[in-house]
Amino acid sequence: MEPADRETVTGLPPGIAAAREELTPMLSQYADLCAAHEDALVLFQVGDFYEAFCEAAETVARVCEVTLTERSDSTGDYPMAGIPIDNAAPYLESLLDAGYRVALGDQVEDAEQASGLVDRAVTEVITPGTVVEDDLLESGTTNYVAAVAADGNDDSAGTTVGLAAVDVSTGECLVTAGDADAVAGELDRIAPAELIAGPDAPAFEPSDAERGWTTHDYDAGVFDRRTATERLEPYLPAPERRFDADAELRAAGAVLAYAEYTQGDDGPLSYVTRVRRYDPRDRLRLDAAAQRSLELFENRGLGASDTLFDVLDETSCALGRRCLERWLRRPLVDADAIRSRHDAVGELADRSLAREGIADALATAYDLERLVSRVSRGRADARDLRSLHRTLAVVPDLKATLAGAEGERAGGEDGDDLPRTDHLRDLRDRLDELTEVRELIDDALATDPPQEITEGGVIRGGFDGDLDALRATEREGREWVADLEASERERTGIDSLSVGHNQVHGYYIEVTDANLDRVPDDYRRRQTLKNSERYVTPELKEREEEIVGAAERADALEYELFVDVRERVAAETERIQALADALAELDALASLAAVAVERDYVRPDLRDDSDAGVEIEGGRHPVVERTEDAFVPNDADLPRGSVAVITGPNMSGKSTYMRSVALAAVLAQTGSFVPAQAAALPVFDRVFTRVGASDDIAGGQSTFMREMSELTEILHDADADSLVLLDEVGRGTATTDGRAIARAAAEFLHDELGATALFATHYHGLTALAEERERVFNLHFTATREDGDVTFLHRVVPGASSSSYGVEVAELAGVPGPVVDRARDLVAAEEADRARGASGDGRGDAADAAEPSGESGPAADADDRDGDSGDREGDPDARDGDASLREFLAEEASADGAEFEPDSDSPTAEQSPERNRSTPATDADPGAPGGASPDLAAALRDLDLARMTPIEALNALHDLQSRLDDDG
């Protein structure tokens, strides 16, 4: 049988719909639930299983790998498949992974007490973004469902988009607004599992389709302003005054409506007490490209678990892990707040006993946020409340530890009370012991209660007098029954007589057939078996009624008492959530302190003045140093607004160096110390990266197109307070275009944006910018060559590199020997042509495509085995403005076989005679291959590059290149 189509298994299956009028009462009930939940696959409780029928059953059987059976009744045969309720989690996870929403149709009344058909209702709709079961959630993570709404402005450029996200498992709710690009960045940062789109909202696609969210439409009515306002009123007083944009209010109301729907439509979620509006500009912005290239949370290389978060995560509990992840996704930009975290981390780093005591105490703490959400929804059992009690019990110990009561001298080194920092003192004050809640749970609940809360054994003896009396009656009755067997044996003389009990017939006295003649007259026959008879006496019947009645009343009373205790605990939800926040922050700070001590990190000197740059001594990459046996530290001295052009061989460490600088900034603004001997850092507002090669074939983007898209975002959004990392810009296209793009981008960063930038490149001609731009300087990574062997020193020094050592890297990578040897021959031939061209032998085409090579140092900057033209003879001060770029474009034309004669008025024309020569072919036939037409040369001379934007210059270059190709 072919797999069922998705539309046939969500909502009412066609096989059920076709027989709707003939269905049995139970299947009719199933059909009603399916019709009410058109977007979900309904699982219907039948006894101890969740069942699906017809096409839905086929899907459940296929996805969950369970047996497809059949239900037959007077109306027909219906395919059926089920999963066990007590082990439903793995099957539900499979359905979620397959993209289905699952509606659980539970029995909502006791089957034994139902007079007819057991009443059922959908108690929960499980979706990727609204999962609340611990078995389906990873500990210490967030799981958001988000909603977006737009303000309806027809002008897309002026449209405000509202974004709201809620973690249904913890009650956290975040709201913000911005233009479409800003909201797209926030979605990538929040990384919701599910996105609800308003009818007027733009489309948002995740930057990573494999790990992105699922988008679907929900009831458009929940995005109505009036409806959203009414939905928000139980959560916020006067909600219309709490948001800056109408789109924010509508998105917040919609996402909470969806959250309520998935939790059974039982009304407001009382544990959602933290609806927080925020401005993305209040945090260091790290878009998806930056998070990916800096490997903050994901490493797609061989070491998939080697990420910055893995390095920092020494947390002891789920609360701290979730907090640390939030901090790393949204680092601070407020200098005072950053220093406050640094103060706390520094104190915990100094106080090893306190740090270890905090870790030990929090290792026994449960996830308070998820616990209290279950308590508030009325879904917590007695074991959940006991877990809450055990977590509250560590709070007094934590306060004592922070106050220095465990071996640390009270008063500290300076005689001040511990903690010494304001941050930790505030945290200590926020550690609410919730004594009354802890005592209530301890007094009311058994130490080790059963998981089932309706069958007794939950309430501790002595908590309620009526319950104690019922339990005493039950206990005394059972003791009387236990003694009955011995007394009846003695009375009747039947040694084999026994007293027993079952659920159907209750208590009985069993006598074998051989002894029936000795049965007393007061025995009343209850059941006949093959070889025996079962009896009951009037007294036993009376005692049974007492026992059963007392037990049932006691179980019912226990349940009532438990529910009352749970509601009293739920009334303190906000206090418990505030305590959870404090515990989470304390755990995260202790984790950062532990990492600082164990890995020898240093506190950065944070500078918030406008001209502060990056100064790092002995900086290290926090992830690489953990995975490598040895790591070479490097210094970084980047004045504010400077552009460092970094050259050097492949594998020498350029990308690692750039990332280490960016990660130092991210760590510092997260509140962490940094891996260095010393560091002074500014406060950046954004970190941009264009590092590494990747594509998006599914989205229709090549590697180069993706690179250009990311470069576009950087050049549009970066400013003087941004840190920019660019690695090998322009390498994915033709050499001429790529070099032009790289140079134009570097100039734009320097001239227009004023951003602090690290620009790694193999286009050695870009090093000339250091002579033309005030805030551009060169760095390169060193290597040595001895007897043909190259050693990468991984050390950065001032100046430009002499070679990229591409052939040597290919050999190290294992490229076959014949390929390496042939490559060396080609390089040698090109260098020979270059040398002959430099001596004026007339072989201009090959010579103009390359530059003389050197061994090391700045004098060798001209070398570029990729064909870069970097000859910088003459007065460097004359190479500025459009003349400099015109010369650069002329070099590119030369590299592709054309000749270019600069304007005779240009000082470069006089100072660089090598660039004015013409080959005989060009003099004889301007249109011959290898020569450029006079019209093309004139067009090059007429370029007014000083008045062009970088993009206009690139377009002009592309047009000239096309003309050159046509002439060729």
UniProtKB/TrEMBL annotation:
Positions of the UniProt region annotated as Disordered: 830-936
GO biological process: mismatch repair
Residue ranges of domain DNA mismatch repair proteins mutS family in the record: 722-738
Low complexity composition-biased segments: 918-936
GO MF: ATP binding; damaged DNA binding
Record carries keyword ATP-binding: yes
Coiled coil, from the record: 540-589
Protein name as annotated: DNA mismatch repair protein MutS
